[in-house]
Model the fold of this input.
Amino acid sequence: MNNAGQTIHLKKEILVRIIKSFFSKDFEEKIRLIPFDMRPKGMEVPYRCCIYKERAIIKDRVIAGLGFPIEEDDETISLKTYAKRSMDRNELDGKNLTVLQAACKGCATNRMYVTDLCQGCVARPCQSTCKFGAITIINGKSVIDNSKCKKCQMCVKACPYNAIVKITVPCEEACPVGAIKKDETGFASIDEEDCINCGRCISACPFGAVHEKSQIIDILKELVSGKKVVAMIAPSIAGQFPGNIYQLKTAIKKAGFYDVYEVAQGADITANTEAKEFVERMENGEKFMTTSCCAGYNQFIKKHLQEIKPYVSDTGTPLYYTAEIVKKEYPDAVTVFVSPCVAKRAEGFDNENVDYVMNYEELGALFVAKKIEILECEEEKYVKESSKQARCFGYSGGVAESVKASLPDESIIKPTIINGLNKDSIRQLKKCASCGQTDDGTNIIEVMCCEGGCIGGNASMNNQKMAKKLIDTLASNSPEIDKL
Done:
């Protein structure tokens, strides 16, 4: 879940204003005025040094909300021009993240630091613990040489006065692959070659400086075009909005969509297909298999751990199968996947059956802009009811449980759950790839890029405990998955 507090509300307000502007009589002018409407003359400045800085950052957020990268912005270009360009745009560029340098704090370097709490004790536990000779005593106080420091934090644990702290750069600390770093200007910059689009940096930055490039204008243009626009909602959505998924279907159709499909329908296919593949691999003598439904994990494999590819399931993701079903039933439809995850934008871009991706924050903003109350909507059933297990794909452990429940003999599967990619879990995956087996004899590894699974995605709006509870409530009233 995105824990950036006020930045969530700020982003949502801007999205609502963009959507309302789209449906107004003068879209371009309304967009131009957003920074001035949000920060009018004489208003007390809530966050920054002055009202002009506030307006500049809001302008950048609007640019990202219109679907453009801030890195390529020319300050002389008005929001009115960007609004026109968004209406004229016919295709997406595949880049999903942008950094608002005006909002970036340019945090202090990630390092270990000795505070004034240092007592200069005789035992010198910090110095004796450091294996790299990074700590010396100057004027009776410990000093860390960061050129030698490996940030192992042993000195932090050794100090009896808690005098040593780790200074972190939140976005850099959150990124599991080191794709976001300071550039020559001292501000955050994303390396597209390394980035796996996990969205961790979005959630981590307390200034909201990392932003998704929204596709909302492109989706709105399709909604008013007269085409059949079909929404495909991710399983984790059941824990994000008030009401149930049947009321949510009605609300989405009120917002202008022609039809709504549960991606859990595709998750049933994924679970059954992956179960069949698992059995075949084990019969062929393979020691383990990893799941393949997490888009962030798939990006990680592609860019950072290709050696594990032979052990990754070849089964398609739930989105892959759902989009295939929708295009078969509505060949001319425009498909929109509704997701908590920026990595799904990358998957959608690579899948010819997925036209656009909208996140939960954007869907929520659409409801607000169009004054749609989900709790006031009638329930509408889905053409095919998804299984209990498929509806639990949205949280960590759900995929492995679904594959297990698909097997006639559940005892043959011994799962390991990797609940979020980090240094330790990446090290674990690398070891499995090099050895061709797991340490503990488990034979299927479920990998979720985000801690908690999809309910921990960067655009999730509810806390994980409550989201899981709501999903479990829905699942408890759902049919069991079909066995092979």
